[in-house]
From TrEMBL:
Subcellular location: Secreted
Family recorded in the similarity comment: Belongs to the avidin/streptavidin family.
Secretion signal, residue range per the UniProt entry: 1-22
Disulfide bonds: 27-106
InterPro entries with a match to the protein in the record: Avidin, Avidin-like_sf, Avidin/str, Avidin/Streptavidin-rel
GO molecular function, one term: biotin binding
Protein name per Swiss-Prot or TrEMBL: Avidin
This protein's GO CC annotations: extracellular region
Record's subunit section: Homotetramer.
Length: 147
């Protein structure tokens, strides 16, 4: 009806001035994050298409060589509700033959602080196909923003 569409327009006009629609909870992964194991990662920059790269500093390892910072590449959704899903791969090539993939989602906790809930698969290299069954570990990590 003309009356209700006038009301709708009034509401839209009001929201322009009163910011009633202005709660854009972005989920930009750029920056430093720390997980429950003490591992840290830096996401350098998220591109306009959601792809990103960074560096992962794991606090723990099952490899024999000393831990080194490791490159990561990933992709995130760009939804504006602050609850984007994402995935990334870490190649531990400097000290391990393994590869890890993480998938997760960003949330804004009750306190408004950003948190990432992730699940991961860690694939180790085995010397024979008959050992394939034991080559993949899985787990979960929660990350909080450091900076
Ligand atoms: C390796 O052990 O071969 C390389 C390091 C793997 C570190 C894993 S990846 C999943 C879990 N979450 C972390 O932050 N570190 C471990």
């Amino acid at each position: 009806t003309p009356h209700s569409s006038a009301l709708l327009e009034l509401h839209q006009l009001l929201s322009l001035f009163m910011d009633t629609n202005a709660h854009p909870q972005q989920c930009d992964l750029t920056g430093w994050w720390k997980n429950d194991l003490g591992s840290r990662m830096q996401v350098f920059k998220v591109e306009n298409d959601g792809t990103f790269s960074g560096e992962y500093h794991t606090a723990v390892s099952s490899a024999m060589k000393p831990i080194q910072p490791s490159p990561l590449v990933g992709s995130q959704h760009l939804d504006e509700d602050g609850q984007c899903t994402f995935g990334f791969t870490v190649n531990w090539k400097k000290f391990s033959d393994s590869t890890a993939v993480f998938v997760g989602q960003c949330f804004n906790g009750g306190d408004g602080k950003e948190v990432l809930h992730t699940s991961w698969l860690l694939r180790e290299k085995v010397d024979a196909e008959s050992n394939d069954w034991k080559a993949t570990r899985t787990g979960r990590n929660t990350f909080a923003r450091m900076g």
